[in-house]
Amino acid sequence: MRKINQKLVWLFIICPVLGGVFLFLPQTVRAANFYVDSDVPVILPRASWDNTPALNALMTWLPDKNVSPSDYQPVERIIIHDTGCDIANPTCNNNQNSVATIQAIYRYHAVTRGWGDIGYNYIIDQQGRIYEGRYGGNGSRGAHVFVDRTRDNFNFGTIGITVLGNYAKIQPPEAVYQSLSRLVAWLAATNNLDPQGTRSSSIWNLLTSEFSSLYNGPIVVGHKDVEKGNPDPATFDFSRIRREATAFAGKYKNYIYQVDGLPRVYKIFSGTRQIYDDLPTFVNAGGVYQKSVAMAQSQVDLFSESRFLKYPDGSLLRIKDNPIVYLIQDGKKRNLNVSAKQFMALGFDFARVRIVEADDLTSYPEGEMIKYGPDNQLLSDGQRVFLIQGGKKHWVVSGELFSVLKYSWSKVKLAPADLKNYLDDAVLSYPDGTLLQATGNEMVYLVSDGKLRHFISAEVFLNLKYSWSKIKRISSEELAYYPVGDYVKYKDGTLLRSKDENNVYLISGGQRQIVTAVTFKNKKYKWANVLVIAAQDFQVLYNGAALPQALLPSPTPVASQTPLPTPTPIPTLTSTPNFLSGATPTPSVSPTPIAQSGAPKMRVAIYEVLSGNVTLTADTAFNILDKTGQVIAVKSANENYVYNISSPASAFVKIVPQNEEGVVQIVSYEDHPAWKPSLNYNQFHGAVEIVYSSKSNKIWAVNELLLEDYLKGVAETSEGDAAEYQKAMTVAARTYAQYYIQKGGKRGADEVYILNNTTSDQLYKGYAREILAPSIVQAVNDTRGEIMTYNGNPIVAAYSSGAAELQTIGTKSACALWGGQYCQAGFEYLSGGVKDPIGAEYSYASCGGANHCVGLSGAGARAFAKAGTKNYQEILRHYYTGTEVKKIY
Question: What is the Cα–Cα distance from 700 to 698, expressed in whole angstroms?
């Protein structure tokens, strides 16, 4: 048996140079940066710098495998940065207090920029020491490269390494090169990457909400290579880094790892680790190795047995050396059983196919195989009629549309059994130029590019020479199926003047351009051709103002349309198609007015239960209920109850403490924060259900509790924030939750929960959060039952970090930025133009992307609270104009 060279022991050394913190150095380390006889780099644990309760509390972001896209992705590229600093400062490139610098970066990223944690996955100081950075380990999404110009997020599937210092004009120290080459090599070897290779990667794009952008380039790159115009890092010798990393990676490839002289063996490859009881077990399983390396447990734990991957719907995946491509859709994998030509005709791109490990696909249930449909055929399943185009099926929603499109019933064929294998595409729409109106509704739409575009006034309708008699009236149910676009605007080349000003504007590209007197004369424009329009219309169409109400009057009545006769059934059809069968889409309407006597119930999805047993208990006696609400068992305080999931589709059990102050614990669930591994966020007020969802086809652990108790466990603000800011954000969080409670849930009333516990909804940590953040609990108690309302309804409490431009031009208009429902009556409180106070501190240079600058500005709200110039209600009313703080219970 091959033995470990030397027992690995961590030493705790008090180092005044590093701010008096504990630095961990293993005895087997040479020069503190590499393991003896292996050249594997030493990665100091996060605890070497995240080492006080105050620092621990700043981390509010945790990677979530259940969001889409998953925060865990296979590593495809390594991106290198330097942190930058003022070279006039003598400590900039001679930093002897690296831990303090890392802590400062952490505070800036986690709090000032609002990222909830440090952005880099690894940090190297000027002495070559390597530190673990962002929590989550290998494959966890960082926060180090976002290209604002294109909205491309390079943080998925990349590792961000930064070097402390400014290397715009000088080379980094030799110690940095030695450590950087080894770290790149070790990460490449453990993730099956070639440091000198190139590859094409799909990049997540914020505009399309999918991996739709492509980047082709080296696997090991600098920030400057993926974001043009960014010089970071300017002077690094990437040829050397790639060359040396390739040599080291070749050595590391067949290494195995053991911890502290213990027999357990770890094999790390393809981004995951495999664990064997001892070396003989590893060898008997066919394992081959070149060297056994003694390594710290914290470094081995950067990798797990599973990468927790969850690819978003629309992902194209292929196992290496296997030609079958799968489409991920509705959480299932669907085999694309099509030719290469058909694959492209369906709109797919081979460059966007991701190569994955076989294990990455095993967790996805099999969906229906995908086939290419017979083009230009009309097919019916007996209930609905579809047109097949581009291999996909398009639903013809109504008989009226069927006639307008001049289709013939004699051409409709009974669909083959494999109709379910054809991909669904957008429903067919009326031809461009059609005017539509829902029966009984005054709003008129123009069909353009397949979307419904709303006329905001009768004046616009008439100025554009449309006729009331040409409007086609259809049912509101049918209208709801068609996508809605922007307002109908004036055509390019139109000269406009608003009634409340003298400026003349030329419409170009859908936008206004001011016409100077000189231009007006030179272009030989005529005043008779200048269209003078209502100030309201001009502000809404071209300045982003919200439309306060629908101003379009009812058009001149026309004769009722003759109902479409039932088509004569044709021999191949068993019955006349029912065009509007199926689920009616959820209407985009405001919640019903508020009328409550007490705090409502919230239902929060804690995690997806994959299989096996779930162990639960409570700190008081508790009842165990079945799906009918009947008590099937009673347990004593702290007595474990094990629920066995024998039939997933019928899974249900509910744990209810007999004392309303009782706390339920999901014993088998683990959610440990990195800063305090002994803490487990697995305790919850109220009841806990293990319940199957037919909508998502998953089993969920759901916490049902009063809204006020829920808010005490929300972790969207920090313990150290000003009290009025905490209150403002608490009211915003309550409003957000109340809005979706009244709608029946964010994902529909047929889902078993209202919100999940991640940052995609609101970050929720349960009862343990109350203990850690008593000031948040106080903010909840101080604002009990208070929400922001507009016209009596909860508002959409949009907020973001903010930027300096908010001090001069104010917040953005939701209508101008997002369009759709935000341009309709009821959203005037997000019209924009609200300014931040002077003195607000910003982490973003400008608005854009996730920092949308609509609604509440985090930087401005903090500044108001810190200065004491506004209380929390005044802060909220300042940013949500025209709203009121209402106590609903």
Answer: 6
pLDDT tens for each residue of 87-135:
777 778 787 888 989 998 998 898 888 888 999 999 999 899 999 999 8
Burial of 482 (0-12, 13-18, 19+ CB in 10 A): buried
50 burial via Cβ count (<10 Å: 0-12, 13-18, 19+): buried
The predicted structure's pLDDT at residue 494: 93
- 185 Cβ partners below 8 Å, 6+ apart? 195, 244, 245, 246, 247, 248, 249, 251, 252
Residue 387: which of 426, 342, 332 has the closest Cα?
Answer: 426
Tell me the C-alpha distance between 281 and 273, whole Å.
15
How far is residue 6 from each of residues 266, 301, 603, 808, measured CA to CA in Å? 17, 20, 53, 64
State the greatest distance between any 2 C-alpha atoms of the chain, in Å, as a whole number.
Answer: 97
Q: Please name the helix (run of DSSP H) or strand (run of DSSP E) that holds residue 777, with its range, or none.
A: helix 774-782
Q: Rounded to the nearest 5°, which phi and psi values hold at 528? A: -65, -20
Asked if residue 504 lies in contact with residue 523, where contact means CB atoms within 8 angstroms, the answer is no
Question: In which residue are the tokens 């300014």 written?
Answer: 835
- List, as one string, the DSSP characters of 719-771: TTS-HHHHHHHHHHHHHHHHHHHHHT-TT-TTSS-SEESSTTS--B--HHHHH
Spatial separation of the C-alpha atoms in residues 622 and 637, rounded to whole Å: 7
| Two structure tokens written together for 797 | 């409490």
Q: Is 409 helix (H, G, I), strand (E, B) or coil?
A: helix
Task: Give the residue-averaged pLDDT of 815-827.
Answer: 79
The C-alpha atoms of residue 797 and residue 776 are separated, in whole angstroms, by 19
Q: pLDDT tens-digit profile of 461-484?
A: 999 999 888 999 888 878 888 888
Integer Cα distance of 116 and 71 in angstroms: 14
Q: If DSSP codes are grouped into helix, strand and coil, which group holds residue 421?
A: helix
Alpha carbon distances (Å) from 454 to 457, 470, 483, 486, 543: 9, 15, 12, 7, 17
Please, which pLDDT band fits residue 309 given cuts at 50, 70 and 90?
low
Which DSSP state fits 165?
A: S
Q: Is the pLDDT of residue 393 over 50?
A: yes
Give exposure, 12-49, as e/b (b: 16+ Cβ within 10 Å).
eeeeeebeebebbbbebbeeebbbbebbbbbbbbbbbb
In 3D space, the residue among 514, 522, 520, 443 whose CA is nearest the CA of residue 484 turns out to be: 443
The pLDDT-based confidence of 21 (bands split at 50, 70, 90) is very low
Q: Which residues of 522-536 are buried (b: 16+ CB within 10 A; e: fewer)?
A: eeeeeeeebeebbeb
Sole residue written with tokens 């985009």? 588
E-assigned strands of 530-621?
A: 530-533, 601-609, 613-618
Task: Classify 761 in phi/psi space as left (phi over 0), alpha (psi -120 to 50) or beta.
Answer: alpha
Distance CA 360, CA 317 (A): 9
Measure the CA dihedral 370/373/379/380, to 10°: 0
User: Rounded distance, CA 429 to CA 426, Å?
Assistant: 9
Whose CA is closest to 445, among 479, 494, 412? 479
Map residue 25 onto helix, strand or coil. Answer: strand
Cα 216 to chain centroid, rounded = 24
pLDDT tens sequence across 155-190: 999 999 999 999 988 899 999 999 999 999 999 999
- Give strand ranges (E) for 296-345: 316-319, 325-329, 332-335
**DSSP helix/strand/coil, 802:** coil
Q: What is the mean pLDDT of residues 453-458?
A: 88
> pTM of the entire structure?
0.49
Q: Is the pLDDT of residue 19 over 80?
A: no
Alpha helices in 163-234 (DSSP H): 174-190, 223-226
Query: For residue 593, is the peptide bond before it cis, meaning its omega torsion is within 30 degrees of 0?
Result: no
- Work out the pLDDT band at 307, boundaries 50, 70, 90: low
